[in-house]
Design brief:
Blueprint lengths: L26 H17 L5 E7 L2 E8 L1 E3 L4 E2 L6 E2 L4 H14 L26 H5 L17 H6 L2 H9 L15 H15 L3 H10 L8 E2 L13 E3 L5 E3 L14 E3 L1 H10 L8 H7 L9 E8 L2 E12 L2 E8 L4 E7 L5 H15 L11 H11 L2 H9 L7 H13 L3 H14 L4 H11 L7 H8 L4
Antiparallel strand pairs: 1-2, 1-13, 3-4, 5-9, 6-9, 7-8, 10-11, 11-12, 12-13
Helix pairs in contact: 1-10, 2-6, 2-7, 11-12, 12-14, 13-14, 14-15, 14-16
């Protein structure tokens, strides 16, 4: 029986309803309001990338901000392609459902049907359905000891990685709990190849990219990225940004190796409203409100009395960050692609602000936003001053936003700054068990390598 942890598959947003009637703004008014919102993020260094907004299925805003390559100051364009990381998963899930409709896959098939490595009791229990909705029990890749070693990604073949996954102890019994798993989607990619006789990239191209004219999308698996894909950047310890080395995505596979552009994702979004891509039965499985196939399904609050039905998903990997918000009652969408390490909570805040504008509401004033201040602190080399200002109540504090930002610092290899922020969060939210948990987790994280620095910060009490 599925437990309450299944709730993590959905947005976890307010579910109340409210009657609502308000004169809707003109398209030009909406565009101006969107521009005002995004300019506030850009001016604080909180967003660089491409933003696309559609209203009633029509594209009304599409703009690029920042650089495709900081080294030569090449500007981004609206057609720039980004690695979309885990936003690959809803596309892969759609491909699986497409192949199911073609009779090439069955959702009740098991891992034992495709892999000799899983010809055992566990393999005979885990179905494609479990892989798609993250209830397989296969742990996420971060639990692997060698995952953060670049040589592991360079030297481990895809076949060898199947062996690695087969030897990972399950975190739960299949079908019991929702636990996010990228290796599960890696296996789906291998299953697609076995079922079609094509590479995952070719199957994706044949069934989705070409029919939808997604000409700026593809799969980047090797050490050399596609020439179409712009470069990723991360914060530097002294301020500013540095280029991320090109990454090998072959072990992410169908779960996180797709690259795309904002316009291509807009085409994919529109196709999900019709039946040209997958049929209604498949869409019911894809957007199941209890166990969706790699979408978050729920209600997004627009005002205190109004919530709208929404589908959302995102991705984040080595400087690339992506998010798609679909407001399905009105066929609105917000598509965000970034190449400078935007955190989950910050991009969720941005698309939420734009959603309010699409429904004629005013976006919140973010002048004292703590995420803006932290971003400027990191990029301008004034991070310690911002931490001091936080403790003197200069900014509007948000524990979730600050925690998300602290983890982003950790993933950016700024472990010292990350631990400093986690300590401040603990001091500002002294009664929060979450703050204590995340501080302890960060202090013991494998990315924290300077033990002297760790002991100096983590020796403090919350």
């Amino acid at each position: 029986m599925l437990t309450a942890k299944i709730a993590s598959a959905t947005m976890g947003l307010i579910l109340s309803f409210g009657l609502y009637a308000k004169e809707q703004p003109t398209t030009q008014t909406t565009k101006s309001a969107i521009e005002s919102v995004i300019n506030s993020y850009v001016s604080h260094g909180a967003f660089e990338g491409v933003l696309l907004v559609s209203q009633s299925g029509e594209k009304i805003f599409e703009r690029a901000y920042g650089f495709a390559n900081y080294d030569n100051r090449t500007p981004l364009s609206v057609n720039s392609s980004f690695q979309i990381a885990s936003l690959s998963k809803p596309i892969t899930a759609t491909l699986v459902l497409k192949l199911k409709e073609q009779g090439k896959l069955k959702l009740e098939s098991t891992l034992a049907d495709y892999f000799t490595e899983f010809d055992n009791d566990i393999g005979r229990q885990i179905t494609l359905h479990h892989l798609l909705n993250h209830t397989s029990g296969i742990p996420n890749h971060f639990t692997l000891n060698n995952w953060f070693n670049r040589d592991f990604h360079k030297l481990t073949t895809e076949q060898a990685f199947v062996d690695v996954i087969a030897n990972m102890p399950l975190s739960t019994e299949p079908g019991e709990e929702h636990n996010y798993s990228n290796p599960a989607y890696f296996l789906l990619g291998k299953i697609i190849e076995k079922a079609t006789g094509q590479s995952f990239a070719q199957s994706l191209k044949t069934n989705i990219l070409v029919p939808l004219n997604m000409t700026h999308s593809g799969v980047g698996l090797g050490n050399t990225q596609s020439a179409q894909v712009i470069k990723a950047h991360q914060w530097q310890d002294a301020g500013g940004y540095k280029r991320e080395p090109d990454n090998n995505y072959k072990l992410f596979g169908a779960g996180a190796a797709i690259y795309s552009s904002a316009d291509d994702l807009y085409r994919f979004d529109l196709a999900l409203y019709g039946n040209e891509l997958i049929n209604e039965q498949s869409k019911l499985q894809l957007f199941n409100p209890d166990l969706p196939y790699s979408w978050r399904v729920g209600k997004l609050p627009i005002t205190e009395s109004r919530n709208v039905n929404a589908h959302m998903y995102d991705g984040k990997i080595k400087g690339y960050s992506s998010m798609v918000l679909r407001l399905i009652d009105d066929k609105h969408s917000v598509i965000l692609l970034s190449n400078n390490g935007m955190s989950y909570q910050l991009k969720r805040q941005l698309v939420g602000d734009i959603a309010k504008v699409l429904y004629g509401e005013q976006a919140p004033n973010r002048e004292n936003d703590v995420a803006f201040a932290l971003t400027q602190g990191v990029t301008t080399g004034t991070f310690e001053k911002v931490l001091t200002d936080i403790q003197t109540n200069k900014y509007t504090l948000d524990e979730g936003m600050m925690t998300s930002f602290a983890y982003e610092l950790l993933w950016s290899n700024l472990a010292g700054k990350s631990l400093q922020l986690f300590a401040v969060i603990g001091n500002q939210f002294k009664q929060s068990e979450d703050a204590k948990h995340h501080f302890a987790k960060a202090c013991n994280h494998r990315l924290v390598k300077n033990l002297e620095e760790r002991n100096a910060i983590c020796g403090t009490t919350l």
